[in-house]
Each structure stands twice: as structure tokens, then as C-alpha cells.
Design goal:
This protein has helices at about 5-20, 75-85, 100-105, 115-120, 135-140, 140-150, 180-200, 210-220, and strands at about 30-35, 40, 60, 65-70, 90-95, 165, 170-175. The protein is an alpha+beta fold and about 230 residues long. The longest helix has 24 residues, at about 180-200. The two termini are about 25 Å apart.
């Protein structure tokens, strides 16, 4: 992928999370990864979304060295890079502070699969990370946030669970492209909103049967998927 195209995709992912009401002011960020070039493009730090242009996206290598761009990259860059280094197939990452997903993160509570809307996109509960230690916070906080995400996914497929709640912080979502990552961020917030409403109406609500969960996820994903036009 050529870098101008990657920058365009990353800008569009950043604008999508604004359009969908997932961010306020300069909160949140989206990035994209071009594996053939080994390069990542990410939103610059602290720049209002309405002022962003494709050329403002900061391009770095997988170690965070700036290759192109005159602005400072998002402060969450090291978290994004740790995800790209450890999750094969992930080509886009989005971080927001969307209301309902952040509420679950602050409660340090995973989102159980209470219905088929959730099951369509997450093959299991939305996981939550362990809290960071004081040392993790004081030393390379953003990198250690990424490491906490990677640890939580030690026995999970990131492409079947395209998002996570970072304890006390907020959601990260990802996908096979920046566009898909933005879509998963939107869906994660909607899943969290529906779950919060469900648990308010019925606090003892439990997960749906595994057979129903599998049916909804696998009809959209995997080699036997039959949803859509192919």
C-alpha cells in the first residue's frame, strides 16, 4: 500500500468515530498498518478532528521512529504498535472513550454476550484487561497498556474478539483495515450500550446459549459464512 492511500484511510477512520459520536474534542485516535512497508500512520496528538488533513497523519515504523510527518503522533502510539507487533492480520486500531464501553472498562467488567447483536461480531464476551501496576504506569505507560492487552489475548483470537476494555481506561478496537477497526469501535459501543440497558432491566441476565452464539458469529465469519454477498 502506498503511504498517501494509508493516510487517507486513517483520516477516514478518525472522522468516522467523530461522525458516530464516539469522541469529544481531541479524545480518541485511529491508526493503520501497511505490513509490506512496515509502516504505521496515526492521528497526530491533540489536533482537533475537524482540522485534520491526510498529510497530518504521522507515519512511523513499528518501533515508533517517525518516517514522515511534522507533527507529534498520538500519545497512544506505543499501544497501537504493540497490537500490530503481536496480532497478525490486524491492519487498523481505534481507541475511543465512548460512554458505555468506558463505563464497563471503569467497572473493570467484561461485557457478557447477552444477545445476538453481540454474537454477530464477538465470539465470546468482550474481554477486560488486568489493571496496570504502579510500575507499569510510571514506566512506559502506553507500551505497558499494549502489553496488558496482549497478555489478555494469550488464549484468544484477536480477529474473533475485535476489541478489548482496558481496565479503568476505555476501549480499543481493531480490524483488517482502519475502516473495519472504526466499525468495530462503533459496534463495541453499541454492544456495551445494549448490555448496560439489559442489565439495568434484568440484573441477573446471563449469556445466551453457546449454540446460538456460535450460529450468529459463524454465519458471518469464517469459511462457512453465508451472510452477505461474498
Amino acid at each position: 500500500m502506498r503511504i498517501p492511500a494509508l493516510r487517507e484511510e486513517v483520516l477516514e477512520a478518525n472522522l468516522e468515530i467523530v461522525r458516530r459520536g464516539l469522541v469529544m474534542y481531541t479524545f480518541g485516535n485511529a491508526s493503520g498498518y501497511a505490513p509490506d512497508e512496515g509502516l504505521v500512520a496515526i492521528k497526530p496528538s491533540g489536533v482537533p478532528f475537524e482540522k485534520l488533513r491526510p498529510e497530518d497523519m504521522v507515519v512511523t515504523d513499528l518501533e515508533g521512529r517517525i518516517v514522515e510527518g511534522s507533527l507529534r503522533p498520538s500519545s497512544d502510539l506505543d499501544t497501537h504498535l504493540e497490537i500490530y507487533r503481536n496480532f497478525p492480520g490486524v491492519r487498523g486500531v481505534v481507541h475511543t472513550h465512548s460512554t458505555h464501553a468506558t463505563a464497563f472498562a471503569q467497572a473493570r467488567r467484561e461485557i457478557p454476550c447477552l444477545g445476538t447483536t453481540h454474537a454477530d461480531y464477538f465470539h465470546g464476551p468482550v474481554p477486560v484487561t488486568d489493571p496496570l501496576s504502579e510500575e507499569d504506569i510510571r514506566s512506559r505507560y502506553e507500551l505497558n497498556t499494549g502489553r496488558a492487552i496482549v497478555r489478555r489475548f494469550r488464549n484468544l483470537d484477536p480477529l474473533a474478539h475485535p476489541g478489548v476494555l482496558v481496565a479503568s481506561h476505555g476501549p480499543f478496537a481493531w480490524g483488517r483495515s482502519p475502516r473495519e477497526a472504526a466499525m468495530h469501535a462503533v459496534l463495541l459501543e453499541e454492544i456495551a450500550r445494549i448490555a448496560a440497558l439489559t442489565l439495568a432491566l434484568r440484573p441477573d441476565a446471563g449469556p445466551i446459549p453457546q449454540a446460538l452464539h456460535d450460529e450468529h458469529f459463524l454465519r458471518k465469519h469464517g469459511p462457512q459464512a453465508r451472510y452477505g454477498q461474498g
